[in-house]
Amino acid sequence: MTDTPGPEAGASNCVRLAETLNRDCQCVSVDREKLLRALAQGEAGADMVRLIEEERPHLFAESTVFLGQASVERMAEVVAAVERVAALPAWAGRVLAWAPESARHRCAAAGVFMGYDFHLGEAGPQLIEINTNAGGALLNAALSQAQVACCEEVTAILPGVHPAATLEQDYVDMFIEEWRAERGDARLGRIAIVDEHPPEQYLYPEFLLFKKLFERHGLAATICDPAELRFEDGALRHEGERIDLVYNRLTDFGLEAPGNAALREAWLAGAVVLTPHPRAHALFADKRNLMLLTDATVLDELGVDAATQAVLLGGIPRTRRVRREDAEDLWAARRQLFFKPAAGYGSKAAYRGDKLTKRVFEDILAGGYVTQALVPPSQRRLGTDETPLELKLDLRNYAYRGRVQLVTARLYQGQTTNFRTPGGGFAPVLTVPKRLG
User: Fold this and answer.
1) End-to-end Cα distance, the chain
2) In what order do the strands lie in the sheet with 369-373?
3) Mean pLDDT for the chain?
4) 281 - beta bridge partners?
5) What are the strands, taking DSSP E only, across 175-263?
6) Tell me: the pLDDT tens digits for 416-431?
7) What pLDDT, on a 0 to 100 scale, did the predictor assign at position 260?
8) Is 184 helix (H, G, I), strand (E, B) or coil?
9) What is the rounded CA–CA span in Å between residue 408 and residue 136?
């Protein structure tokens, strides 16, 4: 009599199979022509393709990443655990103490496109960062459909890909839910997609996609720089048109720059729905928050239940504040640490400890940094035995109100994701079900 494998065996087996496919499978690739055809649909489609092909050639990776179902479920557990803690009144009291003044403004909108970024560690997925205006979700909706397979194992996985049309509707519904949370049954008329110098942004093609998506659903939309906005007669306006909702892609998370003054004033006055907003960033994305989420004593003080604590402490690398009085110990342990600015984004001014120079370390000690236990990224192997291409990978969970909408990957070489690696960029994720493991 043969014993039937239990659920634990299926979970571990699907993770091992995903690791094997990431190392050995060369037969999955992105159908770039299919992808570009999808992006080229509608008005200004040709310009969209040109922006990507000529100016952003490494936006999309040339292959797919495999992920065991157990890892997908574990990441969702960590996301839900963070959201439960962030909903506690005691949590807001802690994190708003170091947040900008604008974050103290209460609003009912939750914030669209929360980005939970993970590395795959020996103990499973590890949350390394949270972002409140994570880019790429709409680009990845198109990317998820442009895949081909030529082996039995992968053919069995492909039917489970989330349809792009379903994802797009989910995204539109999310913006409408944000609007209704603030305005009830009032009509949502015009949306502004706002960032500094939009055409110069690397993800500008996605801004164009969102504009087309909103317009297909009967919503007027514009793309603009925040300095082009005016707060007049109790309304936020762009070129005279009233703006009802702002999809915020700015990295000035507190809206403190002079160019963001009109947007800040309108939001604080309740004249526009802003998503995501400074309060969302303060509650979730300030890197100092990770210090609290990985400190059992603090979690006890906040009243976090034991099950949630176990998920957080097992799924987030220990994070601590960098203090000058700890300099000697930090330098000695630097090879096992990663340093990042508390208010940083996009891996800017972030450093692996083993790459630090004394000069950079001195800058870090000057203040504003946290240090995190190093969880090296896993890898996707492409190419041939003669000319292998080893790419690092991280995983992004796009989530709204604690529910994961899409899991995608970024492939790269170097210290951090950079969209400059041949063969790298955004990559679709295929989930290896437990039944296949």
Assistant:
1) 21
2) 319-321, 369-373, 337-341, 351-352
3) 89
4) none
5) 190-194, 220-224, 229-232, 235-238, 241-243, 245-248
6) 777 888 889 999 898 8
7) 98
8) coil
9) 9
